[in-house]
Amino acid sequence: MKNRSRILFLLALCSALVLCASCVREVVMDAGEKPVVVVECVISNNPVQTLHLRYTKGASKTDYEVVTEADAVLYDLTAGSEAGRFVKAEDGVWTLDYEAVDEHEYRLEVNVPGYDLITAEQQMPLRPNVKAIRNSWCSTSFTANHFPDTCEWTRSCRYELDIRDKSAPLWVWAVNYDNHTDRRELAEYICSTGAVDGFNLTDVVYTTKVDTVMHKVPGDFYTGIWLSAIYPMFIGKRMHDRYIRFSSCPEQISISGSFKGFYPVEFTEDWNVRNDGVITDPADDQGYLVFASISEEYERYHVESFCFQDLYESSILSDIYIRDNVFSNIDNGLGIFGAKAETKMVWSEKPSIYGNQGYVR
Amino acid sequence: MVGKTFDLRKSGICTLILSILAIHPFHADAQEGWTDSLRAAVKTDAMRISRDIVSLEADIEAVRAVVTPLGEGDPVKWAQTLPGVTTGADGTTAFYVRGGNMGNNLITLDGVPVYGYSHLLGLTTSMPQSVVATSELQKGGFTGPDNNYTASHLKIVTRNPEPGFHAGVSLNNFFLGANAEANIKDRVSLMASLRVSPLTWEYRAVKDVLPDLISGLGDLDADIGDLYAKARVKIIKGLWAEASMLMTKDTYQFYPAEDSRDAIGWTNTIGMGRIYYERERSCYEIGYSHNEYGSIQEQEKLYRGETQLLSLASELSEKTFHVRGTNGFGRRDRISVGYGLKSRRTAFTPGNVGGFGNILWTGLTDIYLQGRYSIPDKLDVRASVRYNMFSNLNRSLQGVTSKNKRQRDLEESLYVRYRLGPHVALEGTFDNLVQYYHTLEGLPVGWNIDMMVPSDTLIRPERALQATLGVSLSFGKHSGSVSAFHKKMKDLVLYEYASSLFSERYKDWAEDLYQGNGLSYGAEFLYEYCGRDLYARASYTLSKTDRSGFACMNDGAEFHSKFDRRHVFNAMARWRGLSAAVTCMSGHWENGAPETYLLEFFGDIMWIPEYYSTFNNYHMPTVFRLDLGYQFSFRTGPVSHDVNVGVCNATNHFNPFMLYFDGEKESWNMLALLPILPNFSYRVSF
């Protein structure tokens, strides 16, 4: 920006040379172009697929308009048949009762009056096979319940991964339930002991609140606790912004982050996590971890989205001169037709002295 | 280049008819000193510019008649009013011809390139009007002697002194000038011109008197001037020796704060010598020129108690030797042949930061052969072919082994004119052009601080292929032309950070340079009326220009060229010293104005991405300008006085040329340079 201000100074001087008293005017940057249809549909192994259709808007308009009339069809190219026709749920939203099949190729066709046929294709990835396992330092994790203020992060969760489709990127994020807003939200920070991508690393470091490796609570029957035992392998790690993306497929990982709320974990009698920690039907107020294999194009969209969000939120004004578009795989439109196969997992394996349930704060 | 001249006010015969009927193809005009096989231009009256569709010429009177902020026109400002030409920032000397880049234009002074042609922060040109005889803009059907450009050739020819001794002084808004000339028995002539700008004093005076007007701007120290001198000696009949030099300087130092200084500037130092021999049917010339062009950007500021200096300098030093000749053959000189060789050795020092930079040595040798066949009143055909041998001695050229680093290219040009009748002629041209010097263009304001770099292994030569077809008409006092052109450009250069000033990135310029293609096509219209007291001219260009294939822009897809102005209309009328000119043209294209849309991010967060349908997607407002002027002369004894007064942009129309983001207000703003501006110039000569 410094250079730009120099340029402006010189140009202002040019204007001054010709006695220009008023050579600058504010402008609303609207190119007046025809709105483009924005498609957003991520097919998954969930029972209902949702399609959002909106329009782009120029700078001079105030509201984002949604598509009110459209005909959308999903084709299973692998099976060679029509998977189904989307039904309008409300303006801008169409749904389809259909569960996408792993590794099948799909084609989405959307017909919006006044526009060319909008199309996109995707292949479903394989669902990741994830299993929650007990930490070997279970006893110390148990102990950690007595020191809830020693760290603002959750204690570690440990998972065993069996990634069948090693080509599909694996993303993990945590979903919190917020009592105040009555909705689920992404946990702000997350980190892992696995080999993760560093594209969204933050400056937040996983630290304990107590500035000593040996923490002792007066009067407690424990003589002291090694914090490094409670929070193994995380101390000193930089947190990721909302997501971790595994750059290679790990076998066993620990995950932690800014997870909040109550997350029951049940154990079997032999102290294995019940159902391997997989949540098939989370309760409305339940948080969980999502392990998702996502299609290559959907991943590219997310990585670029993340980078652009980071730019937009930054205070570097020169970023406003960036003129690149976020990746889109929609022909004759914008947005993303993605595919993901996800597994929802409990995120805490910490046993509780109150029974086979554990919780954190 | 230009042959015998006619004065229609004396002959009373229409321009074009005369030009075809009566022009001797090889007759040298002593004022020009050089002819080739091109049919001579015709000076029909004070203003008329018609020559042919792709080559328009005017003498200094017509050039001066253009109303500008300096009170009188200059060759570039004149060229900006012609069909096929569009301007950069309104009021400046940046110009684009038939979809080419600014750096694709060649501007020569007596055949020697002037790389830093602008003056006074781009408001005028560095060649003093007092020494200019004619100005000619070629857009196609190019002639043999000049090369290394792909868009246009603006040929500025200096005049030779009138017999006797003459001197004059001039004054306008921004320049003080003096010139003197002597012609002794038409054997020896001398001419000199000096201009300096009192800009610093003017600026400080305005700042003192009207501090609110330019509040917030620091002090200015500008050093602007030019010096031209020319000597010409007749050795024997027909044999002339000539030497000339041009020195120009533009440096601007700004002091935004007490502890900081910014400076930009550019200089030209050109020396030229030639000997030419003219006979009735032939002409020969041998010459040498030395051309030094440099630009600087400096920034000095106090940082942590120490003065930090960023110095960015770019230089070009070119030595050129040429020899050429023209011979006529056959009955009525129906056939003529031109030929020549030019060899130049150039040292480029682009992006020299802090005194460190590599010198890139290049050599460019070309030979050309040009033939012309004409049947008076019927047909005129001119064809030229050139063989270029270019070498970059530092980095070998693409596809060429290190053993032989030369890049060899053929250039061809063809011009055909066929008269269908006494009032109508068909014209067609074809050109295949190559350019080895590349300008990394920044702001379109005509500041000659853009770096020039040569072709090398990574930077391919720029190329253009173009064709023109048109009809020229002439009915008494009315004349005009209609033509269509199609032009394909290849390997145009684009420097990603060219708009940056004071940036050390220039040091690594090669890493941020991209090449792509261009396409331009359109139609050009020109109408002229030349009456006894009234002269009127209107030109209109309807065109479309695209760029594509730039890896860093729009994913290589097609986008608007920045100055893809669909409509460009210029009109001017002059009646007994009163003149009015109207410029109206489509706005240029800026990059911005995204659509936005809502999108979910992993099904949780709604965010608002921006969508740019293409690069350069925002159409700036239409440019409109009305210029009014009045020119009158009077004498007091032996002293003649010429006065120009006028108003530029009389309607004070806001003609923005640039967008920028105001970080404090968080808003986009448009910036214009030229508001309503009274101007004057006053010249005294004796």
Task: Give descriptors for this structure.
heterodimer; A: 361 residues; mainly beta; nine-stranded mixed beta sheet; six-stranded antiparallel beta sheet; globular; disordered C terminus; B: 686 residues; 22-stranded antiparallel beta barrel; five-stranded mixed beta sheet; 5 helices; 42 strands; 5% helix; disordered N terminus
Architecture overview:
The complex is a heterodimer of chains A (361) and B (686). Chain A has 4 helices and 22 strands. Chain A has 361 residues and is mainly β. In chain A, the strands form 4 sheets. In chain A, strands 2, 3, 6, 7, 12, 13, 19, 21 and 22 form a 9-stranded mixed β-sheet that branches. In chain A, strands 10-11-20-14-18-15 form a 6-stranded antiparallel β-sheet, with no helix packed on it. A 4-stranded antiparallel β-sheet of chain A has the order 5-4-8-9, with no helix packed on it. In chain A, strand 12 and strand 13 form a beta hairpin. The two termini of chain A are 46 Å apart. The C terminus of chain A is likely disordered. Chain B has 686 residues and is mostly beta strands. Chain B is 5% helix and 57% strand. Chain B contains 5 helices and 42 strands. Chain B has a 22-stranded antiparallel beta barrel. Chain B has a 5-stranded mixed β-sheet with strand order 1-8-9-4-5. In chain B, a hairpin with a 3-residue loop joins strand 19 and strand 20. The radius of gyration of chain B is 25 Å and the shape is globular. Strand 1 of chain A pairs antiparallel with strand 41 of chain B.
